[in-house]
């Protein structure tokens, strides 16, 4: 009889940086206050202020045990341990904007003539419309992954969507209804691996280039959830000062940013937050950086027109870039397809495809 060997499922995080970085000062949404009416009203105000001034905020006390998060990092690390041949079986038609499955490193041209070393594995929403095959390590744990993804929807996205609706003076379930889990949408969970650069490559990237793993960009959905990431690399562009600040990992928290769809739906009242990923500080640049993210998006059939809200009307946010320019308003599904196609296309040169029209009224941009 084989002896049962206890399995160690903890993913080992790397030590935090000791460098004195210019950290962003971000507000926190403590969801333990969500269950009482005063707490909820207070959170709605903190959230809208955070979104309007910073575009990034932390969320704490969302009721998902740290062990479940650690397990996801562990599964992500196991996926990235697979040989390239095995992972490559799951590459979708990236050139035509497909993004669920595996994206290998080397598709983006970074500064200094260096190619990216970032791998992505996207697992779509379990809504019955995204049937995909996975390698064994994912397949064998798919029930747990589904439960985790659904818990993000219930424990994090639903309350945040309620708070945004309250702040915009809309019925509490307004955004929740646009994101119903059972409706087809392009939500996905992501394991992301930034392999570290060393030697010549690191030198070229940081000395000849701008030292960026990914250029300044906005995400295309509603909210992006990032699990605590001890390797400092994410930088946020401050809405007011335009300075780049580092996002600090905070224990037991999620870092959340607002994205394109939320900006379209609110006529630009909520901005899509610009962020980028830098080479980590010197005491961490020898580590690979594993990320765990969730990208939330409204239903595919939702037209991206400005919603009616008493607050938006009072403040004069009644048209987004499609409406102002007299362009056809795309649905969320159309917008995802077009922006993903722009994003996923392989680049031969740094900053290729900048200012390309993605949809009439919206161009592809790298933000400095
Ligand atoms: O890795 C990160 O911290 C951010 C990644 C990101 O911005 C993205 O994948 O859109
Ligand atoms: Fe992003």
Tell me about this structure.
By secondary structure, the protein is of the alpha+beta class. It has one domain (about 30-365): Sandwich (Jelly Rolls), CATH 2.60.120. The protein has eleven helices and 14 strands. It has helices at about 35-55, 65-80, 85-90, 135-140, 140-165, 175-180, 200-210, 260-265, 310-315, 320-325, 330-345, and strands at about 30, 55-60, 100-105, 120-125, 190-195, 210-215, 225, 235, 245, 255-260, 275-280, 290-295, 355-360, 360-365. The chain is globular. The model has no long low-confidence stretch (mean pLDDT about 95). The protein binds 2-oxoglutaric acid and fe (ii) ion. Fe (ii) ion binds near residues 217, 219 and 275.
Summary tags:
368 residues; alpha+beta; Jelly Rolls; eight-stranded mixed β-sheet; four-stranded antiparallel β-sheet; 14 strands; binds 2-oxoglutaric acid; binds fe (ii) ion; Iron_ascorbate_oxido_reductase; Flavonol synthase; IPNS-like_sf; IPNS-like_FE2OG_OXY
């Amino acid at each position: 009889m084989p002896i049962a060997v206890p399995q160690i499922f903890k993913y080992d995080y790397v030590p935090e940086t000791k460098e004195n970085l210019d950290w962003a000062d971000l507000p926190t949404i403590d969801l333990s206050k969500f269950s009482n009416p005063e707490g909820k009203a207070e959170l709605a105000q903190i959230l809208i202020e955070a979104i309007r001034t910073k575009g990034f905020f932390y969320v704490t006390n969302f009721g998902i045990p740290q062990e479940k998060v650690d397990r996801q990092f562990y599964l992500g690390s196991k996926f990235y341990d697979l040989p390239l041949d095995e992972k490559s079986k799951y590459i979708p038609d990236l050139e035509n904007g497909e993004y669920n499955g595996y994206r290998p490193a080397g598709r983006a041209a970074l500064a200094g003539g260096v190619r990216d070393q970032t791998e992505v594995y996207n697992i779509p929403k379990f809504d019955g419309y995204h049937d995909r095959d996975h390698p064994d390590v994912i397949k064998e744990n798919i029930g747990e992954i589904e439960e985790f993804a659904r818990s993000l929807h219930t424990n994090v996205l639903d309350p945040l969507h309620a708070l945004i609706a309250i702040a915009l003076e809309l019925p509490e379930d307004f955004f929740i209804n646009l994101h119903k889990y059972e409706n087809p949408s392009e939500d996905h969970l992501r394991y992301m691996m930034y392999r570290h650069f060393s030697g010549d490559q690191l030198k070229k990237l940081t000395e000849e280039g701008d030292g960026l793993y990914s250029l300044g960009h906005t995400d295309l959905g509603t909210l992006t959830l990032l699990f605590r990431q001890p390797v400092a690399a994410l930088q946020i562009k401050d809405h007011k000062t335009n300075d780049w600040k580092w996002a600090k990992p905070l224990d037991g928290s999620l870092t959340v940013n607002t994205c394109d769809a939320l900006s379209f739906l609110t006529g630009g009242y909520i901005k899509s937050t610009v962020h980028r990923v830098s080479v980590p500080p010197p005491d961490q640049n020898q580590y690979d950086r594993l990320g765990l993210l969730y990208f939330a998006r409204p239903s595919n059939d939702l037209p991206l027109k400005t919603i009616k809200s008493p607050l938006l009307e009072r403040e004069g946010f009644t048209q987004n870039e499609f409406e102002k320019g007299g362009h056809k308003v795309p649905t969320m599904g159309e917008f995802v397809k077009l922006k993903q196609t722009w994003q996923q296309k392989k680049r031969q040169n740094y900053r290729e495809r900048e200012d390309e029209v993605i949809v009439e009224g919206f161009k592809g941009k790298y933000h400095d």
